[in-house]
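Request:
Um, any thoughts?
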Amino acid sequence: MNKNVINNVTAGLAILMFAFVGCTGNDQNKTPSENTKSVETKAEKTLAGDQEIIEFLTESFKSNPNILSLEIKIVDKVTLENMKNWNAYIVSLDATVKPKDREVKQTMIWFSNGEVITQDLVDLKTGESLKDSVSPELKPKHYKKENLIYGNVNAKYKVAIFSDPLCPFCKEFVPKAIEFMNKDANKFAVYYYHFPLPSIHPASVTLVKAAVAAELQGYKNAVLDLYKVEVNPREQDINKILTAFNEVFKTDIKKSDIESAAVINHFASDQEVANEVMVHGTPTMFFDGKLDKSKRLYEKAE
C-alpha cells in the first residue's frame, strides 16, 4: 500500500490523543516454499491487504508517545456499493496509555482501496459521509442472557436497546417501546444495555448500577422502573441518588451493593458491547443485529 493518506492519518491520531487526554494478529504473512506457485489467489491478496491495513495503522498510532502498548484488529470489512475496490474497515484498538497505565478500547471506521487510506469518504452529489452507511452489527456473542429483559430467546425478532434513563428522549421513548414489544414474547426478544452518558448525566451511572444490583437481588422490571426515578441528572452525591432510587423501587440498595464485582462486571460488559458496535448516543437501537436509525422498525415488524 502506498503511504498516500486522504485527509491524513494524523487526523485519526488527533482523535485518539484527544480521547487519551480527556478520558476518563498474529502476522499472516507467509513465505511461499519453492514448490508453491507464485500466483496469489484473490483471497490471499485480500488477506495481505488486510494485514497491510493493520500494520499501517499500528505504526501510525505508535507515534503517539502516550501509547505504551497497542493491538489493532479488523473486526469487520464492508464492501462499498458503487465504489470499485473500496472497503470500509471496522477496526478495534486496545491500548495501554500514560499516565497510570490506563486501558483504552476504541472502535473506528477506516476506508481503503488498497492504495490509500482515509477516515472518511464524502459523496460529492449528496454531501453525505459514507461513514453513515457503515455500522458494526450485533453478533451472537452480544446477545447475553443477562441483557434479555423481555421475550423469548428464540423469538422471531431480536431488538437491542442502548439507553440512558436520564436522557429526556429516552425517558419518553424507551418505556413505550419496551411495553409495545412486551405484548408478544414470541415475536420480540428485547435486549437492554445500560449506556449512561456521564458527561451530561453523571447521576445515571449510579442509577443504572443500582438497577443492576436490584436485579441481582431478584427485582423484576428493573429497567422500566428505572425510568420512573426522579433525580437531578447532574447530581453526583451517591447517597442522594440511591435515596431517590430506593423510594421508587422500595429497596435498600447501598453503596456497597453497586460496588460489588457482579454489578461492576455487568456494567463493564454493557459498555464493552456499546464500544464494539460504536454506540455514541442514546437511545440507540438495533433490529435483528443491524442499526435501526429510525428506531421504529419494531413497529413495522409482522
In short: DSSP finds nine helices and ten strands in the chain.
